[in-house]
TrEMBL record:
This is Probable 2-phosphosulfolactate phosphatase. It catalyses: (2R)-O-phospho-3-sulfolactate + H2O = (2R)-3-sulfolactate + phosphate. Keywords: Hydrolase, Magnesium. Its cofactor is Mg(2+). It comes from Spirosoma agri. Its EC number is 3.1.3.71.
Length: 236
């Protein structure tokens, strides 16, 4: 039986074999939620990069550029890290370069995998249905916060494990832990997360609407996949 495992932070990724594995990267607040939304609204591609300097180089080549650090937009870039930014009709069909504190770093570290997919609650079912058709094991990589574990990405991992538990065996304790955590909080994720560190961080910036939006399940039938150095929308 295929196996699903959970890596709770990119700093632990070196402990997991990825050569014969599909990695699903999750940065619920807010990078992967932004990416899923962007493709749902017609963006052509997103190049995820680890550093602000790399993002600036793509910007100089004519790409729209999004840069976020510590949940704030970096000065000098066109786009921020709110999913509502990517609903703008004017960026439909665009190629975007993006760097974020955690999410894009996690994606760039996953490049040795068979495939790298971008997951969020917004496309949870699309990711689950896609993986059911794949012959490979799955590793859910939680972007976390600066190398540390966070609740929201762990909850997403648990939600995906829950959707796949009939098709995949839980490989290690981290998958079981994430699944049980999601079972505790799934009926009201906003309340369950109310005292979490990133919720408090975002609330200080006055962006409660982003939090509410990112916790919605199954809004979009979109699966971003890494092809070369760019994310594109997989044909479903």
């Amino acid at each position: 039986m295929k196996q699903i495992d959970v890596c709770l932070t990119p700093d632990l990724l070196h402990l997991y074999p990825t050569e014969n594995t599909i990695v699903v990267v999750a940065d619920v607040f807010r990078a992967t939620s932004c990416m899923v939304t962007a493709f749902a609204y017609g963006v052509k591609s997103i190049i995820p990069v680890a550093t602000v300097d790399e993002c600036r180089l793509w910007q100089e080549r004519g790409y729209l550029a999004a840069a976020e650090r510590n949940a704030r937009k970096v000065e000098g870039f066109e786009l921020d890290n709110s999913p509502f930014t990517y609903m703008d009709e004017e960026i439909r069909g665009s190629d975007i370069a993006m760097t974020t504190t955690n999410g894009t770093l996690a994606i760039t570290r996953s490049r040795g995998a068979v495939k790298v997919l971008v997951g969020s609650f917004l496309n949870l079912d699309a990711i689950a249905q896609t993986l059911k058709t794949e012959p490979y094991d799955v590793l859910v990589l939680c972007a976390g916060w600066k190398g540390r574990v966070n609740m929201e990405d762990t909850l997403f991992a648990g939600a995906l494990v829950d959707r796949l538990k009939e098709s995949y065996a839980m490989a290690e304790d981290s998958a079981i832990m994430a699944w049980r955590l999601y079972g505790q909080g799934k009926d009201n994720l906003a309340s369950y997360l109310s005292n979490s560190s990133h919720i408090r961080r975002l609330q200080r910036l006055g962006i409660q609407k982003d939090i509410t939006y990112c916790l919605q399940h199954d809004l979009y039938d979109v699966v971003p996949v890494l092809r070369g150095n760019a994310l594109v929308s997989m044909e479903l």
